[in-house]
Amino acid sequence: MVISRKGSARPKAAEAPGLRERNKQEKLERIREAARELFAEKGFAETTTREIAERAGVGTGTLFLYARTKEELLMLVLAERVEAVQEERFRTLPTQAPLLEQLLHVFEGFFRLYAKDPGLARMFIRELLFMEPGPSGERMQLERAFAARLAGLVAAARERGEVAEDVDLEMAGFNFFSLYLTTLMGWLSGALGPGDSWRPMLERAFALQLKGLGPGAGTSGGNKRRRS
């Protein structure tokens, strides 16, 4: 605490952390924007971390405090967009539509995002899947939060009678996310073809999952088959 000449106390020490945090956030935004611009202009492979640091107006040492590698910079750029798409998709969700339609609405936003730059998207998904343990904690939190929102859709569908009462909501959200990720990888690899070729595949996968979740699944008929 610092005492001014007028005798009033100024909490200078308390203000410093807030200022440092703002400066840190401003640098992060400059780095993210510089990486976004250069990846768009030159492509991921041709862009160097030194160029990103120069455009952001920071030293390379400072840059590495925010991202240790160019791959982590890619995560900084696209993770922000992915979160924005997620928010937009859930905000515009057709709340009265069947669960299948709601799921396709949510995931369509991500396919539209990745279609803008499939090469960058392939790199992003690869890094997302095989990121080193150190920086993966935040990514895992984001994935769990997203799966929880999907579980919320299943819970609402259960209230409408679309799925059985004993459905494991957490696992259902995880399963839908896994089916999306598998379809996305097939689409980005070209195995499913161009354009909206992902949609019929994802719709079929979700429909099959929902058939297994539906009322009457796992009843005595299924138990008899397992015992035979």
UniProtKB/TrEMBL annotation:
Cited SUPFAM superfamilies: Homeodomain-like, Tetracyclin repressor-like, C-terminal domain
The entry's DNA-binding region: 48-67
Region Disordered, annotated ranges: 1-26
GO molecular function list: DNA-binding transcription factor activity; transcription cis-regulatory region binding
InterPro entries attached to this UniProt entry: Homeodomain-like_sf, HTH-type_TetR-like_transc_reg, HTH_TetR, KstR2_TetR_C, Tet_transcr_reg_TetR-rel_C_sf
Pfam families (UniProt xref): TetR_C_24, TetR_N
Entry superkingdom: Bacteria
Coiled-coil zones: none
Keywords: DNA-binding
Residue stretches making up the HTH tetR-type domain: 25-85
Gene3D superfamilies in the record: Tetracycline Repressor, domain 2 (1.10.357.10)
Protein name: TetR family transcriptional regulator
Organism: Archangium gephyra
